[in-house]
Here is the input.
Amino acid sequence: TGDLEAAKAACAAVDAGFPALDGWELLGCGAYFAYVRHPFDIPSHKLAPALVHEAGLLMLPGTMFRPESDRAGQHELRIAFANSDARGIATLFERLRGLDPSRLAAQIDVT
Here is the structure.
C-alpha cells in the first residue's frame, strides 16, 4: 500500500501544479504518467529534445502516442513521475515556469 499511496500523492502534486502554469493543460494523470498540452508553437517531437537541453526535463512527445494523422499529438507531452517524490515534482514545475518560449523557439527549426 506504500507504493499506491506514493503514486496517489505524486498524482495529486502533479494535478495541483498545472493550473499555476500559464498555457499548460493537464489532460490526464495516472499513477505513473501525466499527459499534458504544452503552450508553445513548437511541435512536441522537436520540443521534447529541447526541454532536455534547456531545462533538464525528459518528456516524450505526444506524437509517439497518436496516429500520424492526428495532429493533436504535436502539442502534447507525456511526463513520467513514477520515481519522483514531492520535491522532484516541485522541481518539475519550477523548471517549466522558468522556460523562455522565445529562447526555445530560437533554438528549434520548427519547419
